[in-house]
Amino acid sequence: AIAERARRTGGRLPTIVGRVAAHEIGHLLLGTHHHAERGLMRPSWDLARLDRGDWGFTLEDAATIRARLQRRAAASLIARATP
Question: Which of the four, 3, 15, 60, 82, has the lowest number of CB atoms within 10 Å?
């Protein structure tokens, strides 16, 4: 499906595959099926805009990912310290 969409839109397949992978990893890191109104986590993409700068995580998503990873790291440290 990704290859077909790249062919139809003229988008570069490696770029689209990388963005799709990053988007799906974002769902794992966020721990939700949430979609943002802008950025990498938006639900639909304009593939004609692949080279524009709106392909990162929003500040809110980045903060959520950071907080979740910090909580996970802290829980891991506590688990290792507990005999």
Answer: 82
